[in-house]
Amino acid sequence: MKLGRFRSAGQWFGLLVSAVLLVLIVRKAQDLPAAGQAIRDADGRWLLAGAMLYLLTFLPRGMRWGRLLAGVRTIPLRHLTEVEAIGFMANNVLPFRLGEVVRAYTIGRKAKLPVTTAFATIVMERLCDGLALVLTLAVISLFYPFPDWVKRGGGLAALLFLGAAVFLALLAYRRDAARSLVAVCTRPVPAPLAGKIATLLDQFDRGLHLLRSPLDAAMVAALSALIWVVEFGVYLCVLAAFAGPIQQALGRPIPLHDALLLMILVNFGSIIPSGPAYVGTFQAVAIAVLTGVSHLSEPVAFSYSWVLWATMVVPIVAVGFICLAAEQVSLGSLVRVRGDEVRWQAERDR
Q: In the chain, where are the structural domains located?
């Protein structure tokens, strides 16, 4: 019951954050007719290319997930990419990142895989993505003088992801030390809850085989790099679509390193609690980078942020619902799954 209340409070808090940011974004747009004109002037062909390129990222995403699951079960690439699409769709239409739970449950149901193991590999995916972005930010910061707020934000994200990486490495190589650390951290919580956390930790450990396999680690690192190279292409496509408005506002294109910073910080912004599809946080971070770093005008930055968001959200929501329909289950039935039911299903399927 307490977990349910916490989740409900988190959902309302995320919605509040999105609502406040949306109000601030619209107020700061300054000239909404100019923003609308910038959208009308955008080249739709580049936007279509960007949408197709974003959908293409799900092929290496599926390949990477298959590598993470290789030590547990071999799953066809088609199934992995379909479930990836379902999970991303659910993240975009549901609050509180419930798409991760939906994805773990769906692949567990489809491949008769323990759900906690599947969820562990999803955490590993997120960790790989975060470390790739942190590393990229560290490299480009050596060559380009970004504002202090960028460096502070990047440093905070780096601490978060590096801390998670250290703990997972500890769990993989020094399991007893990791369990002792968790025991110390959970000492203030009630004994039944601490016991459940310890049990989940044992099940979670099964999904961390990657850290014990150098070959899988190298393949996952290479696929992570490919994913972000392709996704960077999406940002460049949308920038190309807005080439006219940007040229008119700035007198020059957006530099590549600014576009790379935009991609990194927008993805870091997804950590901030928000409503479905990261509405508000996505636009706020994108506008902050475009105006504060690239010095783009507010109306054009406002337009670009919304079109980029739509380019990355609308296609995967459509594809995700198609894949979900092929599974012959409803999104509502997946959302209603509670933690105990997920664990029971995982044990039964295993």
A: 16-349
